[in-house]
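Deliverable D2.4 — example input (structure tokens):
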């Protein structure tokens, strides 16, 4: 049991290094968090819908699939296109009113964002095919319980961090009268531009791989 505990501590430290690294999901969570404090929680649920089955698939040898050049190119093109669409839509809506009544589909839409950002992010999949795979194999060696605990602990790292980001964005924006609407617009411009930048990077890497 001590081996399992030590492994989980190691897994948490390594997982947090990946979870807290700035990326497309960070930008999307902060942007959506300015209007919905639960955005990070919902995005993490969508993320988990992709990530937890992926952990068990990697245990069965699926990492070879993600090492295929055609798969890397396809994921990069899809992910880049989605990020460009999301970033453009975010910037285009800056001048629109933010006082519209709540949309009943908000929760499902935000979960879908988490699913798509995870499934079409080549760097997320690359992390799991390399660093994550080593953790999966280490957990597998310790038994099924260790693998289940690892999957739960890793997802909880995403859940906590993304929730903190969206709560922070929401309350900083709503509670700081010194910033108000100007702060929100600046934050959304930054996040929208970040998503466009990540989208261009994804597409560039995929096309470079395609023509290499």
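Example output (designed residues):
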């Amino acid at each position: 049991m001590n081996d399992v505990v030590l492994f989980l501590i190691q897994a948490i430290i390594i997982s947090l290094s990946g979870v807290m690294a700035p990326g497309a999901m960070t930008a999307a969570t902060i942007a959506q968090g300015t209007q919905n404090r639960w955005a990070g929680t919902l995005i993490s649920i969508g993320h988990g819908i992709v990530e937890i089955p992926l952990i068990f698939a990697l245990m069965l040898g699926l990492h070879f699939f993600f090492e295929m050049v055609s798969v890397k190119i396809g994921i990069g093109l899809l992910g880049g296109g989605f990020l460009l669409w999301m970033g453009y839509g975010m910037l285009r809506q800056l001048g629109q009113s933010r006082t519209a009544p709540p949309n009943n589909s908000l929760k499902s839409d935000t979960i879908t964002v988490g699913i798509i950002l995870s499934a079409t992010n080549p760097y997320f999949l690359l992390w799991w095919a390399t660093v994550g795979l080593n953790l999966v194999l280490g957990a597998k060696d310790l038994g099924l319980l260790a693998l289940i605990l690892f999957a739960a602990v890793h997802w909880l790292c995403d859940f906590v961090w993304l929730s903190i980001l969206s709560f922070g964005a929401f309350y900083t924006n709503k509670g700081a009268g010194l910033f108000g609407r100007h702060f929100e617009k600046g934050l959304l411009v930054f996040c929208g531009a970040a998503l466009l930048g990540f989208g261009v990077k994804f597409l560039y890497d995929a096309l470079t791989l395609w023509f290499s």
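The two ends are 48 Å apart (CA to CA).
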